[in-house]
Write a structure and sequence with these properties.
The chain is α+β, with helices and mostly antiparallel strands. About 20% of the residues lie in helices and about 35% in strands. It folds into three domains: about 45-95, no CATH class; about 100-185, no CATH class; about 185-245, no CATH class. The strands form six sheets. A four-stranded antiparallel β-sheet has the order 1-13-12-11, with no helix packed on it. Strands 14-15-16-17 form a four-stranded antiparallel β-sheet.
């Protein structure tokens, strides 16, 4: 368990510095490189109202949008203001986009969510920071005292397999530019642990009314995919691992 404790000891590194803003990537068409298309102009209240009356449909006042508010012009000349408790969109390339924590690989091998309120970068493998969060000119990096494998991506989760023998690290990104992490031990790792003694004793005891010996550790029904897969592997590992000494 000492090794598990060691890997859980995250190192925090905070620093302040200017962050360069990348220019839009050019669009390549065969041997010709053209600039990315310009975003549509933002609509003022008067422009949105004129379009709403012309199209007989509500039109967003894009110039008035913020991460938490939208203003909509109606054909009858009224405006509707919608406010959310937390950001639900971000301005990217001059266009408002819904927040989306789905992870993708960057050109340099690192991993980032599609659209978040503040930038988040996860490790693509190696000895660099596990995660770097940015806000304006400030950033915060967190590192593990281990070399990370290339993660397996699924939605907004990145699974770093076998960061310790039989132990995966699962990192979940959120739409606000943050993340959570959890270490998931395989059944053999848990079964061999001294903390698992009562469960081994239960497996070796005679069945009784209400006995749960076939599933000594309950798993939440609504656990996300990686945890469900881990739980499924645990159940198959009972017979294989039950003879491991304490």
């Amino acid at each position: 368990m000492a090794a598990v404790v060691a890997v859980c000891a995250l190192t925090l590194t905070a620093f302040t510095g200017a962050r360069a803003v990348a220019a839009p990537d050019p669009v390549s068409e065969g041997n010709t490189v053209t600039a990315a298309p310009a975003p549509p102009p933002l609509l003022t209240q008067d422009q949105a109202l004129a379009r709403a009356r012309r199209t007989h449909a509500p039109v967003n006042v894009s110039a008035a949008e913020t991460p938490t508010t939208t203003l909509t012009a109606s054909p009858d000349g009224t405006f509707t203001l919608t406010v959310t408790a937390q950001p639900v969109r971000t301005l990217a390339g001059g266009t408002w986009r819904p927040l989306d924590a789905t992870l993708h690989r960057n050109a340099d091998g690192s991993v980032s969510p599609a659209a978040t309120t503040t930038p988040l970068t996860l490790s693509g493998g190696g000895t660099g920071p596990l995660a770097t969060m940015r806000s304006g000119l400030d950033s915060l990096s967190l590192a593990l005292p281990a070399q990370l494998p290339v993660p397996v991506l699924a939605g907004n989760t990145a699974t770093y397999q076998n960061v310790l023998p039989g132990t995966d690290l699962i990192v979940t990104a959120d739409t606000q530019g943050g993340f959570s992490d959890v270490l998931v031990c395989s059944y053999c790792c848990k079964y061999a642990s001294a903390f698992y003694g009562p469960f081994r004793d239960a497996l070796d005891s005679a069945p009784r009314a209400g006995d749960t010996r076939r599933c000594p550790v309950p798993y939440p029904v609504k656990a996300h995919g990686p945890l469900l897969r881990a739980g499924h592997a645990d159940l198959h590992g009972v017979r294989r691992c039950r003879d491991i000494p304490s």
